[in-house]
Amino acid sequence: MGNNIPTVYDPQSEESKWYSFWEKQELFHAEVDKAKTPFSIVIPPPNVTGQLHMGHALDNTLQDILIRTKRMQGFDTLWMPGCDHAGIATQIKVEEVLAKENGLSRYDLGRDKFIEKVWDWKHQYGNRITNQLKRLGASCDWQRERFTMDEGCSQAVREVFVSLYEKGLIYQGNRITNWCTRCNTALSDIEVEHEDTQGNLYHVRYPVEDSDGQFLTVATTRPETILGDTAVAVNPDDDRYKNLVGKYLTLPLVGRRLPIIADDYVDQAFGTGAVKVTPAHDPNDFEMGLRHQLPQIVVINNDGTMAADTGRYAGMDRYECRKALVEELKEKGYLVKIEEHVHAVGHCQRCRTVVEPLVSKQWFVDMKPLAKPAIEAVESGRIKFVPERFTKIYLNWLDNIRDWCISRQIWWGHRIPAWYCDCGEVIVSKTDVTCCPKCGGSVRQDPDVLDTWFSSALWPFSTMGWPKDTAELKQFYPTSVLVTGYDIIFFWVARMIFMGLEFQQDIPFSHVFIHGLVRDSEGRKMSKSLGNGIDPLEVIEKYGADTLRFTLITGNTPGNDMRFYWERVESSRNFANKIWNASRFVLMNLEGFDSNTIAKKFTLADRWILSRYAKTVAEVTANINAFELGEAARKLYEFIWNEYCDWYIETAKARLYNKEDSLNRSTAQYVLCHVLRGTLELLHPFMPFITETIWQHLPHEGESIVRATWPAEQPELVDESAEAEMTILMETIKAIRNMRAEVNVPPGRKSEVILQVSDEWYSTFSANINYIKTLATSEAEVGPIVADKPENAMTAVVSGVEIYLPLKGLIDVEKETARLKKELASLDKELNRIFGKLANAGFVAKAPAEVIEKERAKEREYKEKQLAINERLEYLAKL
RNA sequence: GCGACCGUAGCUCAGUCUGGUUAGAGUACCACGUUGACAUCGUGGGGGUCACUGGUUCGAACCCAGUCGGUCGCACCA
């Protein structure tokens, strides 16, 4: 970098270059180093078929910031990357491709061939998302990349399944579960999303057996399930129906005898207070059926059509059947009325199909014993959620946990390690079974696979080599923090916690850092169907990864959603460019500078920026440790732009251009360099590429900023008096600029300025008058405060300094008076507030002395200003 | 029904946990400007009863209670 570097930073040429450099040097690789404190993160594995979206970009930027910071701080830092096989999602995708390209279904292909296809797909597209993560700058240890379906993870899955089975925590049962008729599989409760839907409440009357025309009217939202009714239930305390309990009804259209039963579940106030009971097709009815020993009559098939024994409805779609059946009820006089009714209908999370509760044989995890320690780990504070409020959401879910249905009737996934023999023997085994240990007969493996989240739940230790007892596991488990969105606390976070506690006897991570969603500029979720998604790669290509990262981090607070604005991207891009140009300036002025052999004589500005820098180091470090990454980024932005660029560089210019005073010049060079390099190091986790690019050009130690030492906190550099002095000088400069602008002094023209300065600040001003001369474009003269005030001059007052800007012609008395009166008014307002406070006996008696002294100091300051302005107004009035 | 979150400048959001500067930023807006890093810039400016009501306190954007408005979870209302 020299004088011929472009004035605009071009991320494209730098980013790929540095990423391959980092990879080649293995800077992201973690070796187990027992001498160091470990810091580890496992990536939330993205779907292997997926591509990077804004959610990933945010999630991984947050992780990368933490990882890069800790790496620089000298921890043994591991960021474990990998992908998830994403059972249903991947299977759907491959099925779609298959249908489109060959017009085939997976059944046409058969299980083995189909799985082969999926693996083909994985090999072809599986590294797409990892490459995209590299574009983002993610400093994962790619040598350790894992996949939930790889050998090791699969071994972990079997180990866990068998172990839980042997402990009786995994069992097989014939139960009613959520069934997706489109995916043709059972789902767990949380894979069902309930949506309020406008439906109807159909009131249907059932004739009472052996009565003269008596009816009992039930209300239902699903009339098609009438065909499967095996009872009607009323509340035992319901006086309307007490006399009917124990009697029988005749099921309309079918003619079946239905007992009238009493059950507490029934809400007297809802509908008619009488509920038809369909044990095979409703979870509550299923429970009631068990309580009352009612038969289960299946009337809906797995594919959502009506069962073979439903007569004229057989084979009809469930919703077609509903229409037709209501029509028939109406014709035959059973339909009493139809009311509109909004109710929550469950949809398949993956394909949005309405979920059908169906009875089937599935595998379940008994959750209560596993949930208990998982609750305790969070309640005790061993695992902390950031922000804390998510603790409640987590605990609430686990407190009400129900058993987890883990079997899926799909093909892509970890096949359940259970084998069945015709003799009735069920063998659950870590290794494949070929014959029945009991009778020696042939066995067949359970055709189902496990819920994808079953293997994800093991991720923090399966990726470390478990069930083998590895060095990685010892060093990096438990991991330090898990970074993820609030939408998968139940799916993933909770499950990792109980699996970790069960199989490692230890928590999987000590902190859970939760972030929100990235929405579009109108606050809508980004979605394929809306077409409002913004591709992070597009942003990276147009503006660079650093810009995207900075945009996602600033203006975002933990746990809250954020909106994506192109304007904000531009603002981040401008920031990158600002850093670029400030660095250009520094590099262009390093001629003759030797960072090793330098004598230093610090000026006020030097002491000031070093003090500000020291505070920035301390604050940014603290913010990152507290997961306040947006706040850290904001502080760096302000420090670089508003302090380093706007003021320090400006004060340094004269010193750099004056080659006579080489001590002064080299001191400026030293401070410019030192502060810039340190600031770049602080910024590196946020904007890895541009910081590396510049850092390499600055005098530095080491091969890459990636492994540079995190700037040390140097409290000895904090210099409050330098800050106070610099502040008043800056205020004076701003006041002069303000007056010049007010009367349209051309920016290039110097103005004469007379400063009357109190004793307190006199030496500061006389010693540093050059700052005012240069930065306020003024011929400034400093003198003590005297009664004799310049005539024909504009006036401004900062605490302890009266500033006069003499004008060539006469000043506009009216305008000047108005300006000063305005200033006086705001001063009066503020003084009144302070008077009120100080006059308040309670305040003086109870407020801390420090606060009171602060108010008194302000009072003195404002009174001084007020006095000066009043004097000036009197003078103006006489003209 | 239960719970959480949000309401601060035209817009997007910090600040609220830990009460005490004249409440901040980005962006948009107005005026001036190509001064040897940067027009992706500089200088200056305008813009806010911190949703509302009440309480606690010497003192509330911040703590407490409630109201209104918005968002989102959880829940078996057939």
Outline the structure in words.
- It is a single chain.
- This protein has about 900 residues and is of the alpha/beta class.
- The chain folds into four domains: about 230 residues, Rossmann fold (3-Layer(aba) Sandwich), CATH 3.40.50; about 160 residues, Valyl/Leucyl/Isoleucyl-tRNA synthetase, editing domain (Isoleucyl-tRNA Synthetase, domain 2); about 180 residues, Isoleucyl-tRNA Synthetase, Domain 1, CATH 1.10.730.10; about 130 residues, Valyl-tRNA synthetase, C-terminal domain (Helix Hairpins, Orthogonal Bundle), CATH 1.10.287.380.
- Helices cover about 45% and strands about 20% of the residues.
- It contains 28 helices and 29 strands.
- The strands form ten sheets. The protein has a four-stranded antiparallel β-sheet with strand order 6-5-14-16.
- Strand 28 and strand 29 form a beta hairpin.
- Helix 20 runs antiparallel to helix 21.
- The longest helix has 30 residues.
- The two termini are about 60 Å apart.
- The chain binds one RNA strand of 78 nucleotides through strand 8, strand 12, helix 8, helix 11 and strand 25.
